[in-house]
Write a structure and sequence with these properties.
By secondary structure, this protein is α+β, with helices and mostly antiparallel strands. It has a single domain (about 5-150), classed as SMI1/KNR4-like. The protein is about 25% helix and about 25% strand. The chain has helices at about 15-25, 30-40, 75-85, 145-150; strands at about 5, 40-45, 45-50, 55-60, 100-105, 110-115, 125, 140-145. The strands form two sheets. It has a six-stranded antiparallel sheet. A two-stranded antiparallel ribbon has the order 1-2. Strand 6 and strand 7 (about 125) form a beta hairpin. The relative contact order is 0.18.
Length: about 150
Amino acid sequence: MIILLSYIHCQQTNYLKRKEKMWRVTLPESFRTFMEQFNGGKPINGEFLCNNHSYLIDRFLCFLKEPRKNELGVYDIDVTLTQLEERLTDNEDLIGVDLLPIAVLFAGDFVCLDYRNNKQNPEVCVWKHEESFELAPVTCYITESFEQFLEIIK
């Protein structure tokens, strides 16, 4: 996999543990490693298929401690979560994260870690912004794990 590095450095260990506690999920180890290397990076070839539809990754989202002070702040995962809020869950109590956006796709959809079936081992899906409504997200299954997702975008 070839990815252009972003200029954002991700100081992760304790920061990610706090995020996991707040989101009530466990981030896959492969995702943690990926973020340490490519936090907010742009793929050279980020094209993949989902239900016979071709998608293109514009940029992976990032972790920023101060997104308002960074030109790439709109790509911060927490900023994205705040913007999409109830459209990323079908759980009315709104506690924790069901769909965690990790990459922006061309035309406004997102690649997400899907924790709805398993809070420890998320699947990867496309979240469809035009079809999703409050408490009614529409997704397209991509792979069983983040590792498998990285394999298909190589």
